[in-house]
Specification:
Number of helices: 15
Helix content: 25-40%
Structural class: alpha/beta
Number of domains: 3
CATH architecture of the largest domain: 3-Layer(aba) Sandwich
CATH superfamily of the largest domain: Type I PLP-dependent aspartate aminotransferase-like (Major domain)
Strand content: 5-15%
Number of strands: 17
Distance between the termini: 52 Å
CATH class of the largest domain: Alpha Beta
Largest sheet: 9 strands, mixed
Length: 475
Amino acid sequence: MKLYQSIAEKIRERIEQGYYQVNEKLPSIRTLSQEHDVSVSTAQQALLFLEKEHWIEVRAKSGSYVKAQLAAAEMPQPCRPAQYPLKVSQWKEVRALRSLYKGHSDDFLYLSSGMSDIDAPTLKPLLKIMSHLTIREGVRCLTPDTLQGAVELREQIARLALDGGTRLHPDDIITTTGCQEALAISLQALTKAGDVVAVESPGFYGLMQILKALDLQALEIPAHADDGMSLDALEMALDQWPIKAILVIPTENNPLGSTMPDENKVRLLKMTQRYNTPIIEDDIYGDLRYKQPRPRTLHSFDTEGRVILCSSFSKTMSAALRIGWVAPGRYKERIEHMKYIGTANTTTLTQLAIAEFIKQGYYERHVRTVRQQYRLNRDQLTHMLQTYFPKGTRISAPRGAYILWIELPGDVDTLLLNKRLVQHKIQIAPGVIFSASGKYRNCLRINYARPVPKSAVLAISQEAKELLAESLMPQ
């Protein structure tokens, strides 16, 4: 993030906190430059940026004033999914989504992806570290490490986990080939074919496809875009069905962006104690919470080793690194076995590189910078959606990460919307793939790790409005 953006972020936070009121005049450019110890031109750039982001307005021969904000968009509503376990489908739709990544020009806009901003300048030191490691460590970079993974990385993971209230010893951790493997081997250790697993609805389609591959049944539990999984609905499900595991993303849920309050985490743990049900916690977005300190993990409240904690560096750094990890608790022996019969080892070079990246302080600097950028991107995108999308559109309000869940009005089919967007060189993630039962056909997920162009928002809006009009025409 550039210096003027950092100054703009501080002013924006003061506006949000009520330090500067609507229609109040901001300090002059010279005063701001002195207050923040920056040049006059930097202070001016900060104000221009805030004007572009619709936080302030410039009045001729008067100065800059705080602008009234649009009313917050209504949140997407929880959907009532099927009240019985289902086999997961939608692989055809997921495969079609992934196959579109090939064969298109570089200017194709993949708003469907879950990728972080890999062009962030704060990631550049990682490339130098990898280059130096190949010289310093030599053949070790080509040598498989232990089943648990490189101790250097496990030590750093244990240190980072403290930010979420989680106390781990390096020996409590197993490194994996991404979070996807961590989740898959955890499920393999806990279940057998035909078992029932409780999942949030909507839920990350990657998790759904793990269930499909393992021949497990998904019991969808409705989730709210603010506080996550409905514990009342979960308790009813636990009473009725033989649930073998609960899959949950408590912090910055994908795709809703919800965060489970601490009191709900405590209640969930007490509930699973009564039913003797293990929990698999996916904390992949936890470090990308905009405001610090970040929320505590569910694992941090666990005193019985019942919660299996999974995460990775795919969302904070790059998915191509394929480095994740799992803290298996009481299920360590079974999960180690699943790791052994799967990939057996995790790539040594990338483990060592990430460990060094964290140790030298680059990781904390990187996530601090991208958190600010993602928040600015969210605000800009939300403002455009409220301005240009069809009336009645509902928009999530994530407090971290870089994905937005959008509920369109009426019977807009986002699978069909996605097909029409190909002509605009745009791809979104249609809502149907986030459900085992094929719900959320009028919803979509958008990635804003990089600023979303206004032209893309207008194109999606226009196609959505046309589909809405077509759905209202008499048959």
